[in-house]
Structure formats: C-alpha cells, structure tokens
Design brief:
Length: 150
C-alpha cells in the first residue's frame, strides 16, 4: 500500500508487489466499497505519515534552537578493540540548560520538551543495551563510552 493523495481513499496498491496473491484480505466488498480492513490500513498509514511529519517538525524546532549535537559512541570489545559508531546525534545538555524561559515554555507547548527530556535520559540506557547484548552470547562489549560534542 502507498498513500495516494489523488485517489478517493487516498490509498493505492502496488499491483506489481510480490506480496499480492489470491489468498489475501478482501479490500472491497461486493458493492465496490472499501472493506473495514482497507479503511484500517488507510487509517494506519495516515497515522504513520502524521507521526513522521510531527517528528520532522520537532527535529526542525530542535535544529532551529541549535540543540542538536553529534554524539560519539565508542564500544570496547573484550579483545581490546574499539568500535566507533558514527552518525549519531543527541541534544546538547549545555544547550538545553542555556534555553531561555520563553524557549522552554514554547518547547513545552509544542509537546517537544518531554521528548527532549526522554532523549537526554535515554543515553543512560546505553549500559543496559550493553548488558542485553552481552547476555546473547555475542562477542562481549566491556564498555561503552558516550560523548556529546557540546
């Protein structure tokens, strides 16, 4: 399924997809109207699209306020080798602390302040992720070092 703003249901089907077959879910009733299944699929895709648009607005807001900072994650393996994971970003704690009261209120009213707090707090979960990784029996990670370039 793909969203199609030009169609009546705002939804289109990729007829060349290998997932289509005769044993699938009925999308249209005998009267030619969309079934509940099709309406649910359309609603889910719209929610996902709206969520992505909301997330993009939030990221744009963070970027405008110059809160986004590169994050460096270095994993040390049990054999002594280090593995650096590049391309990660977080919010700068110093930049967040330097926000004016008005900016904090604006972030709160936009629903972005809670997300900023969650993103900042989530970095403390790196250690838990290391523990979960090591519990799988994969090559152990002895330490994880996180640095945010303020």
């Amino acid at each position: 399924f793909v969203l199609d703003p030009t169609s009546e249901q705002r939804l289109a089907i990729d007829e060349d997809s290998v997932t289509l077959n005769g044993n699938g879910i009925q999308l249209f009733g005998s009267d030619g109207r969309p079934t509940e299944a099709l309406r649910n699929i359309s609603a889910r895709l719209k929610r996902i699209t709206n969520d992505i648009a909301d997330a993009q607005r939030m990221v744009d807001d963070f970027a405008q306020r110059k809160l986004i900072r590169p994050l460096q994650l270095i994993l040390k393996l049990d054999d002594g080798r280090e593995h650096q994971i590049d391309g990660l970003y977080s919010l700068g704690t110093e930049a967040l602390a330097a926000l004016t009261d008005d900016s904090v209120v604006e972030l709160y009213r936009a629903g972005h302040l809670a997300a900023a707090a969650i993103m900042s707090a989530s970095l403390s979960q790196i250690e838990r992720l290391r523990q979960l990784h090591n519990a799988t029996g994969a090559k152990p990670i002895t330490s994880a070092r996180v640095t945010i370039e303020e």
